[in-house]
Amino acid sequence: MKIWINGKLVPERDAKISVFDHGLLYGDGVFEGIRAYNGRVFLLDEHLARLWDSAKAIALNIPVTRKSMEKAVLETCRANRIRDGYIRLVVTRGVGTLGLNPYLCKKAQIIVIAGTIQLYPEELYRNGMAVVTVGTHRNMTEAVNPRIKSLNYLNNILAKIEAINSGVMECILLNPQGYVAEASGDNIFAVLGKTLTTPPTWCGALRGITRDAVMRLAAERGYEVREDVMTRYDLYVADEVFLTGTAAEIIGVTNIDRRPIGSGKPGPVTRELGAAFAAYAKGAGTPIPA
Ligand code: PXG
């Protein structure tokens, strides 16, 4: 595998960063997870816009232009012969001292990895997934704002540990007020009749790029799409619940805290939007050069 690191493509064994990088020492940096479908990088502009916004929020200056970052992503895909894959774009604060001060870090480091990902086993996409709500709350918006896609994922990892320890693969995090925020690496939707509801970002949800795409596709298909405050009750009584994310794509949730959701199988709306998303993803995106 060839890795892009600071302007060069190098073999995996040479792709190394300093132990003084604040990305490692403090989780100080930002990232994106992006998919490629059918030889195209899906919604690359949207991912780069979010990366730049995350960087701005943590006062991190990305030392290249958006255009050259786009080139780095496409070049890394080309070098690894990616047609369908998963791209991890990481910007760290860079090498600094043994102290928090980010302004002492010389230069942000840019890393692009192009490989593959499978988040959940295929069987769960067919039959639906069981999840639990967990005791670890989503960060409050005035701490590390959940809208920032930062390298600091311990909050999500602590939640994920609780899920796995209770025998399921994914969890739902509530915000400090007890309202539904999102899953550990996915957004959440509930379907009731012809209405889709997802928590607003101020409740502690990342503005997911898959979330945005699904909201658009659902509206085009005549569903009412709302962002509204949600409690666990709204999930328990929904006809269908599904999660969205770049890595997860669209996956039905059929059991929450031991309550079966709807029929206990992925419902018709989840399947319709899953198919619509797959069709859209195949045709959209920035072509990877041959
Ligand atoms: N919420 C959070 C907290 C995320 O990290 C999403 C929602 C979905 O957003 P997109 O833009 O991808 O639709 C994410 C992104 C993993 C993993 O291994 C998941 C993400 C990123 C990196 C790894 O589960 N999800």
Question: Could you describe the 3D structure shown?
Answer:
Strands 7, 8, 9, 10, 11, 12, 13, 14 and 15 form a nine-stranded mixed β-sheet that branches. With 290 residues, the protein is α+β, with helices and mostly antiparallel strands. The protein starts with a strand and ends with a strand. The model has no long low-confidence stretch (mean pLDDT 97). The radius of gyration is 19 Å and the shape is globular. The chain is built from eight helices and 16 strands. The protein has two domains: 2-115, Aminotransferase class 4, branched-chain amino acid transferase, N-terminal domain (D-amino Acid Aminotransferase, Chain A, domain 1, 2-Layer Sandwich), CATH 3.30.470; 122-282, D-amino Acid Aminotransferase, subunit A, domain 2 (D-amino Acid Aminotransferase, Chain A, domain 2, Alpha-Beta Barrel). It has helices at 22-26, 44-57, 66-79, 122-127, 154-165, 209-220, 232-236, 268-283, and strands spanning 2-5, 8-11, 29-37, 40-41, 85-92, 109-115, 129-133, 170-174, 180-183, 187-192, 195-198, 224-227, 240-245, 249-256, 259-260, 286-287. The longest helix is centred in the C-terminal third of the chain and has 16 residues, at 268-283. Helix content is 29%, strand content 28%. The site of 3-[O-phosphonopyridoxyl]--amino-benzoic acid has 16 residues, from helix 6 and strand 13.
